[in-house]
């Protein structure tokens, strides 16, 4: 049985993420989907990764993301027996082998410089890293989608699977983003 893995913040899960996960799924019998930034507590800011650690950029919990991604994959005809989820603490790479065996290849894409840094980190830990494709510049961005949601603009709905649209509404993500941003601005 061929086992592989993908990873990401998926804040929120968008069509670019779906393309990536489906491309990796096509290479495997079973795919582990690693969720980074799975503890929504404070992370020390890493200047090499921009602001991805800040709470307003991570509004969805681990389990909310698992639910959204599961629904999106089921909507796209992927049998539930062909994928599973695990924490993927790339922000603390020494812990990563506690969650994913180094014998499992990591599929990735290269859409921004951070992807190259992740590849180096994973290889240094002993993982085989397989680049599925390069897409620069990035065509869809979670930060753009979060901004559109927070601003009440609906154009984001064309950038995400229907499972994400449903979850954004159900979870009240717009209000959550507004609150997180006002807390951020109040802390400055």
Strand-helix topology:
Blueprint: E1 3-8, H1 15-25, E2 30-35, H2 62-75, E3 83-87, E4 106-110, H3 113-124, E5 129-134, H4 142-150, H5 162-171, H6 173-187
Parallel strand pairs: 1-2, 2-3, 4-5
Helix pairs in contact: 2-5
Task: Please describe what this structure looks like.
This protein has one domain (3-187): Rossmann fold, CATH 3.40.50. It is 38% helix and 15% strand. The protein contains six helices and five strands; from the N terminus they run βαβαββαβααα. The strands form two sheets. The chain has a three-stranded parallel sheet. A two-stranded parallel sheet has the order 4-5.
How many strands in all?
5
What structural class should be given to the helix and strand makeup?
alpha/beta
Q: Tell me the strand order in the biggest sheet.
A: 1-2-3
The CATH fourth-level homologous superfamily: HUPs
The helical percent reads 25-40%
End-to-end span in angstroms?
51 Å
Strand content: 5-15%
Count of individual domains: 1
Q: What is the element string, with H for helices and E for strands? A: EHEHEEHEHHH
The largest pleated sheet is described as: 3 strands, parallel
Task: Fill in the CATH topology.
Answer: Rossmann fold
Using only CA atoms, what is the Rg?
16 Å
The average pLDDT is: 91
Instruction: List low-confidence stretches.
Output: none
CATH class: Alpha Beta
Give a short overview.
By secondary structure, this protein is an alpha/beta fold.
Task: Describe the structure using short key phrases.
Rossmann fold, three-stranded parallel beta sheet, 188 residues, alpha/beta, single chain
């Amino acid at each position: 049985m061929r086992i592989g893995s993908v990873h990401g913040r998926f804040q929120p899960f968008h069509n670019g993420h779906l393309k990536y996960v489906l491309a990796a799924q096509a290479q495997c019998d079973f795919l582990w989907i690693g969720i980074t930034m799975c503890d929504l507590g404070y992370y020390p800011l890493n200047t090499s990764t921009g602001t991805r650690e800040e709470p307003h950029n991570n509004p969805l919990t681990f389990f909310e993301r698992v639910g959204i991604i599961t629904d999106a994959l089921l909507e796209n005809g992927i049998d539930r027996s062909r994928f599973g989820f695990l924490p993927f603490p790339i922000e603390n790479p020494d812990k990563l082998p506690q969650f994913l065996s180094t014998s499992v290849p990591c599929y990735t894409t290269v859409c921004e410089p951070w992807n190259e840094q992740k590849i180096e980190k994973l290889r240094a830990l002993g993982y085989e890293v397989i680049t599925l494709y390069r897409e620069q510049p990035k065509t869809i961005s979670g930060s753009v989608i979060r901004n559109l949601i927070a601003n009440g603009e609906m154009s984001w709905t064309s950038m995400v699977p229907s499972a994400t649209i449903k979850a954004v509404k159900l979870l009240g993500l717009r209000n959550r983003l507004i609150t997180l941003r006002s807390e951020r601005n109040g802390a400055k």
